[in-house]
Amino acid sequence: MTALPPGADGVPRHVAIIMDGNGRWAKQRNLPRIAGHRAGVENVRALVRRSAEAGVEVLTLFAFSSENWRRPPLEVRLLMDLFVMALDQEAQKLHENGVQLRVIGDRSPFPRKLQDSIAAAEALTRHNQGLRLVIAANYGGHWDITQAARQLAEAVKAGTLEPAHITPQLLAGFLSTADLPDPDLFIRSGGEQRISNFLLWQLAYTEFYFTDCLWPDFDQDEYDRALASFRGRQRRFGMIGEQLEAAHGRETAAPID
Ligand code: IPE
Ligand code: IPE
Ligand code: MG
User: Which residues of 214-245 are buried (b: 16+ CB within 10 A; e: fewer)?
Assistant: First the structure.
């Protein structure tokens, strides 16, 4: 029997989330923005657990974009401290729960301490077989595609690759998500309806779900609503609905590759 395509059982294999709205959540309560970020981190713990329970294989969270350096320096510094604290506190628990943690993005501008915490958490959880938790930090879709293009250019220059042999599949193999399935479900909290330079390439055929709910309020019920919305979608990947129903008697097509 062939494996069911992603989402055929109604559960997205890969969920990618823009966790937006922490600052506004704090402002509503007359708290400093960093209090919103702290509440946002708290929320991540519950979402990771729920994802594993629901059978999601990969959960990618946008924690800091390549554009977030433009924020006031104090907020950036406090965010870096918060990342270190969260990683150091949570790594062991994630490990005990079989979670494999990985960080994507250009980590070279991060403070040494943060780079060390990332490396330690990745090393600790590397061989785990449970949920794959991907944290996008200093990540940008433009950066990702650019670094892939640079690697291809290097291979062409070295004479190991013919430009004519560059295909979408080949390029995708150089992205920071090379070994992961593309996201099936994209969620953005906080009311904005934009991608903000998140996984540009990888979201080509992802189902989008936007909610006004601010990230610290995005609880299990909100998450379940997003998962339920996904279950109700028909993913056609360019075909027409009748083709899917006739060919397989199911509502979901195989993704493009
Ligand atoms: C998202 O919340 C978290 C990060 C970008 C780190 P925001 O900080 O963008 O919250 P709002 O959009 O100002 O409410
Ligand atoms: C996107 O949120 C990045 C993260 C959630 C980490 P932003 O709040 O920075 O996005 P824009 O700038 O409003 O598009
Ligand atoms: Mg925001």
Answer: bbbbbeeebbeebbeebeebebeeeeeeeebe
